[in-house]
Amino acid sequence: MEKHNWNGYIDNTPTWYGTDGKMIDVSVEPSGLSFYAELPQDEWNEWIELF
After folding, report:
1. Is the CB of residue 25 less than 8 Å from the CB of residue 38?
2. What Å distances lie between residue 41 and 9, 13, 47, 51, CA to CA?
3. What is the DSSP string of 1-51?
4. What are phi and psi of 43, to 5 degrees?
5. How far apart are CA 46 and CA 28, in angstroms?
6. Sign of torsion, CA 48 43 34 18?
7. pTM of the entire structure?
8. Which pLDDT value is given to residue 1?
9. Residue 10 — left, alpha, or beta (φ > 0 → left; ψ -120 to 50 → alpha)?
10. What is the pLDDT of residues 1-51, one digit of tens each?
11. Residue 24: other Cβ atoms inside 10 A
């Protein structure tokens, strides 16, 4: 099941949104998952709650 606004892989990085100045990139680091997001707080809260 894909998360809301899935945009595929860009440079081998899972990406959501990616248009209109909004984005979420996720990478796997030794310490766990790393999230980088550029979107309004309410949209981030909605998105991460589904995770």
Report:
1. no
2. 23, 22, 10, 15
3. -PPTTEEEEETTEEEEE-STT-EEEEEEETTEEEEEEES-HHHHHHHHHH-
4. -70, -40
5. 22
6. positive
7. 0.62
8. 43
9. beta
10. 456 677 778 788 777 776 678 888 888 889 999 999 999 999 999 888 887
11. 23
33-36 own/partner pairs: CB under 8 Å, 24+ apart: none
Are the CB atoms for 51 and 37 separated by under 8 Å? no
Q: Can you give the pLDDT at residue 3?
A: 64
Residue 49 is encoded by which pair of tokens?
């709650």
* Two structure tokens written together for 48: 């991460």
Whats the size of the chain, residue-wise? 51
CA gap 25, 5 in Å, rounded: 12
